[in-house]
Amino acid sequence: MDADLFPEDPRTYLKAELELRQLRRPQYSLRAFARDLQMSPSALSDFFHGKLGLSKERVQAIAAKIHLTEPQQDHLYDLLEMRFARSGEMRRAAKWRVEQRISRQPGRLSLEKFCMIADWYHLAIPELLELDPKFQDPKELSKALDVPLPRVKRALQALTEIGLLAIVDDKYVVTENSTLTGDESPNQLIRQAHLQILSLAQKSIETRTMQERENVSVFLGIRHEDYPELQNQLRKAVTNVLRRFAAREGKDRLYCYTHHFFPV
C-alpha cells in the first residue's frame, strides 16, 4: 500500500495525475482532464492558478477519480480550507491539521520535491556521476542518457536543491541524504515512473541484442495469501544480488533492473 504523503500545495495531487495521463497519452489535454474530473475547463484552470476552492463533495469526487487515499483526501480539503474557508477560525484549524500531517514525515522529501525528480533520468544521473568523471559535463550526461541538455541541467539543479547532490570544488558529489522510493512514494508518481521504465525496456528490446539484456517471464499459480511473503522475499533476494555487484570496483556501464509480478 502506498504511504500517505502530504504536499504543501493543493494543486500537487492533480498536477501529478495530469502528468501521468499525458505520459500515457501525449495528446491528453487540460480540457480532457477537466471532462474526466467532471469540471469545467475554466474551473480547473482557476484551480491550477490558485483562484478556486472546492467543496467537500467535489474533493471527494475528485479524490475517487485520481485514486487518493482517505487521509490524502482530507489533506487536500484542508489545504483548500486554509485559503478559502469563510472564517479565520476554520482556516487556522485547517492549517493546524495540515502542519501536523506534514510534521509526521521526518526524513522524507516533500511531495513537491519528489515531483522535481520523478522522471527516470534523475535516478540515473547520480550513478553516472560515480561511474566516470566525464559525466561531470552535462553534455556527456545528455548524450549518454539521450535526454535533451536543458532537461539534464534542470535535473542537476533539482538534485542539488533537494540535497541528493552537492557541489564540492566545482564538481557534483553524490550525497547519502534520504529520499522516497518504492512503496513510500505517491501512487501517481510511482505509476508514472513505472510507465517510463517500461518505455525504456521496450526501447531496449527493439535496439539491444539478447546477449545485452535479460528478459524472463514466468507464469505460476500461487495462493493469494502467500503473495505478501513472496513479494518480500523477491525484493530481499534481488536487492542482495544487486548490491553485491554494485559494490565492485571498475564499473563501466549503467544498467536498469526492473521486475514486474502481477495478477493475470
Descriptive overview:
The protein is mainly alpha-helical. It has a domain at 11-106: 434 Repressor (Amino-terminal Domain). It has helices spanning 11-24, 30-36, 41-48, 56-65, 70-84, 88-103, 111-116, 121-131, 138-145, 149-161, 187-207, 227-246; strands at residues 165-168, 171-174. Helix 2 packs across helix 3 and helix 4 (56-65) crosses helix 5. The chain is globular, with a radius of gyration of 21 Å.
- In the sheet with the most strands, the strands line up as 1-2
The CATH topology name of the domain at 11-106 reads 434 Repressor (Amino-terminal Domain)
User: In angstroms, what separates the terminal alpha carbons?
Assistant: 19 Å
Radius of gyration in whole Å, from Cα?
21 Å
Mean pLDDT: 84
- The fraction of residues in strands falls at under 5%
Number of helices: 12
List keywords for this structure.
single chain; 264 residues; mainly alpha; 434 Repressor (Amino-terminal Domain); two-stranded antiparallel ribbon; 3% strand
Q: What's the arrangement of secondary structure elements?
A:
Blueprint: H1 11-24, H2 30-36, H3 41-48, H4 56-65, H5 70-84, H6 88-103, H7 111-116, H8 121-131, H9 138-145, H10 149-161, E1 165-168, E2 171-174, H11 187-207, H12 227-246
Antiparallel strand pairs: 1-2
Quick summary:
The chain has 264 residues and is mostly helical. The protein has twelve helices and two strands, in the order H-H-H-H-H-H-H-H-H-H-E-E-H-H. The chain has a domain of 96 residues: 434 Repressor (Amino-terminal Domain) (Orthogonal Bundle), CATH 1.10.260.
